[in-house]
Amino acid sequence: MITLRDIYKVFQTKDGPVRAVDGIDLRINEGEIFGVIGYSGAGKSTLIRMVNMLERPTQGEVTVAGRNLSQLHEKELRKARQEIGMIFQHFNLLWSRTVRENIAFPLEIAGVKKPERDRRVDELIKLVGLAGREESYPSQLSGGQKQRVGIARALANNPKVLLCDEATSALDPKTTDAILDLLVDINEKLGLTIILITHEMHVIRKICHQVAVMEAGKVVEQGPVREVFRKPKEAMTKEFVKQITEPEETADAISHMLAESPEGKVVQLTFVGEETERPLISQLIRQFDIDVNIVQGKITKIQAGSYGTLFIALDGKPEQIEAAIAFIRSKQVEVEVISHVE
Ligand code: ADP
């Protein structure tokens, strides 16, 4: 659906050239939710803005739905952009217009006549769950509702692609989850291809199929979300995996456990969505005659299982502990035995 071929973006600033994007190749398939994660300054915004040519690459080609956007002139581009919706961290709504008028705006620009426009807006309002708020102004809405308007507006012209620029970064965790659920719903119902950029690991884990990890303008690692985070190869990817644990507290708790039971073992379990931690732990206790204590960790529940890292202490006879570890290894859980804390 989307290919970025050998893309560079160099900004000329008074302090000299800044290489915001430094040679990126990506392929994004139709219907995929593709996440790009990286810290601030990694080049994510610049990259996503090149997908709809809000930013023109210094070098390289961007192809969307078979059309090479890099070769289009401004007028042709305006038309091509109607197939690419975009939502933003701070929503970018028109503050003097109502919800209905905000959503109708791109339809007006595309020259859609009033009756058809009204019909389409009604449909979109229903899709994003804003019924009853049609006549509200953005200032009367919560952050989550504002982003719903942003999403409806982005979808107005029936795009094939939706770009999400830190779309949940200004929202609290509960609202973030609701907006991410809405994006999944849209992806499934409309078959829309979604690219999102974020610095937050849980966003990637919750909804993305594929991920690219960015650092200093380059993609350092990419692939299916589960594979990339189950066995991160690059230091930057490991950093993001750590985001879901609290390193200092965890290190303290592990040192304590190791001192308490020198015969026992502390084990790091990384859940990748196929198991849930509670049934696994109760099974360990029942089956292996050992003590199991949760030391630390952060787990996010999803429909099919859990994501996140959990440190547990196993105490009992050495052979029982070994058998328990072998048993965990037979599950879809990554296991690492920790014998000391750095
Ligand atoms: P991210 O979205 O990952 O935070 P950005 O794409 O915003 O990263 O920025 C990448 C780098 O490019 C940063 O060093 C930033 O300062 C620089 N940059 C981004 N946009 C511009 C611009 N319009 N002019 C000059 N430098 C820019």
UniProtKB/TrEMBL annotation:
Gene3D superfamilies: 3.30.70.260, P-loop containing nucleotide triphosphate hydrolases (3.40.50.300). Pfam families: ABC_tran (PF00005), NIL (PF09383). InterPro entries: AAA+_ATPase, ABC_transporter-like_ATP-bd, ABC_transporter-like_CS, ACT-like_dom_sf, MetN_ABC, MetN_ABC_transporter-like, NIL_domain, P-loop_NTPase. GO terms for biological process: amino acid transport. Keywords: Amino-acid transport, ATP-binding, Cell membrane, Membrane, Nucleotide-binding, Translocase, Transport. CDD domains: ABC_MetN_methionine_transporter. The keyword Transport applies. Residues 2-241 form the ABC transporter domain. Coiled coil: none annotated. SUPFAM superfamilies: ACT-like, P-loop containing nucleoside triphosphate hydrolases. One of its GO terms (molecular function) is ATP hydrolysis activity. PROSITE patterns: ABC_TRANSPORTER_1, ABC_TRANSPORTER_2. It comes from the Bacteria. This is Methionine ABC transporter ATP-binding protein. It comes from Halalkalibacter oceani.
